Automatic annotation (TrEMBL):
The lineage of its organism: Bacteria, Bacillati, Bacillota, Bacilli, Bacillales. Pfam families: ABC_tran. This is ABC transporter ATP-binding protein. InterPro entries: AAA+_ATPase, ABC_transporter-like_ATP-bd, P-loop_NTPase. It comes from Salinicoccus jeotgali. Keywords: ATP-binding, Nucleotide-binding.
Length: 291
């Protein structure tokens, strides 16, 4: 199975407004991507190009080397999971999964029900009798069970209860190992999702300002803590972004990488170095426009 997604200088204008500008991306099978951007940055519009809901005003979008727009075979490779309102849905997840399997041949109903059981969700209970968080989990699980070569989750985990959300992330990783696909999680906040991504994509003011592997991304900044005079001396000449003091402990956030020599010095000075979280780095990079 191959599902390489390529966007080359893709732009999107709607009613004379530029929604996306000069976006170039390459997404590979078997990798999980985190698409991050503030509300209004154009995340859903970017995903709509990949899902062929829209055609770029300029540039190109390709799946497996072909333009997917109005190509039924290619469009069928994409599963775009977004928030669904189940308020009026009297059917159960079990019923809907069996029905879905009939018109989506790749959908694995048994796999869906097994995952729901793992989340502690009763598949025989009507959806409109479930909490909003449980409804969101059912929707997301159906997205995994669709086994689509390109699977997109557009802000679908926000209203899940914390425990459900964390369990779902584990299932997403397992599902991608079980059936490798191109998986995209789009959100304006990624707290608690650091372990999920293979690569990070940051969209800021209609432009992609960064795409890189998660390990390289996390090397872009760090926090160092310890005695004030030692921290100040250690970070002299570095790009210090913020400072926090708590009693005798001084902590600063630094934009930049730390090498083995720095780590050795920090250890000798009894300083503690820790990487920043994805959300922290995202906030820093979109504020400073560096990257």
């Amino acid at each position: 199975m191959s599902s390489m997604v390529d966007l080359t200088n893709a732009s999107l204008d709607i009613k004379k407004n530029t929604i996306l500008e000069d976006v170039t991306l390459q997404l590979e099978t078997g990798r999980i991507y985190g698409l991050i951007g503030q509300e209004g940055a154009g995340k859903t519009s970017l995903l709509s190009l990949i899902a062929s809901y829209r055609k770029p005003t300029k540039g190109a979008v390709q799946i497996d080397g072909r333009d997917p727009y109005e190509d039924k075979a290619l469009m069928a490779k994409v599963r775009f999971v977004h928030e669904v309102d189940y308020t009026e849905t009297h059917h159960t997840p079990k019923y809907l999964s069996r029905v879905t399997e009939r018109y989506r041949p790749a959908f694995d109903s048994d796999y869906a029900l097994t995952m729901l059981e793992g989340l502690g969700i009763d598949s025989d209970k009507a959806l409109n009798r479930m909490s909003k968080g449980q409804q969101a989990a059912v929707n997301a699980i159906f997205g995994l069970a669709a086994n689509a070569p390109i699977t997109i989750f557009d802000e679908v985990t926000n209203i899940m209860e914390a425990t459900l959300r964390e369990q779902f992330y584990k299932m997403a990783i397992e599902a991608n190992a079980h059936y490798p696909r191109t998986m995209i999680f789009s959100n304006h906040t990624v707290s608690g999702m650091d372990h999920l991504f293979d690569e990070i994509i940051i969209l800021d003011e209609s432009r992609v300002i960064l795409q890189e592997p998660i390990d390289r991304f996390l090397e872009r900044g760090f926090r160092v803590s310890g005695a004030k005079e030692k921290v100040v001396r250690f970070t002299d000449g570095m790009n210090v972004l913020s400072t926090h003091a708590s009693g005798s402990i001084h902590s600063v956030v630094v934009l930049g990488s730390v090498d083995e020599a720095d780590r050795k010095t920090a250890k000798e000075q009894h300083l503690y170095i820790e990487p920043l979280k994805v959300q922290e780095l995202f906030t820093i990079l979109t504020a400073t426009k560096e990257g």
